[in-house]
Amino acid sequence: MKTVYIKAEDSVCLNHRDVKIEDILSLYCSDPDLAYKMKKMNFYCFPQKGNQRKVISILKVVE
Q1: What residues does 62 pair with on adjacent strands?
Q2: Burial call 4-31: b when 16+ CB within 10 Å, e when fewer
């Protein structure tokens, strides 16, 4: 069993549509390969229409 620690930012401003885990939180794991894969996972993708905001609960990230 691997232990993963996450620390979410209070607020994040991004200039790209595809949101990856590493964009919204810090992630630490005893297995560096697993940590790298998790950081690069896609989390959310904004539609192409204009400026948008999205509120995401940390519980959704943990899920």
Answers
A1: none
A2: eeeeeeeeeeeeeeebebeebeebebee
Q: Which domain holds residue 44?
A: 4-56
Which tens digit of pLDDT belongs to each residue from 19-35?
A: 899 998 999 999 999 99
- Residue 26: inside a domain, yes or no? yes
Could you tell me the two tokens for 1? 């069993």
Whether 10 is covered by a domain: the verdict is yes
Please tell me the number of Cα atoms within 13 Å of 53 on its side-chain side: 3
Q: Is the pTM of this model over 0.70?
A: yes
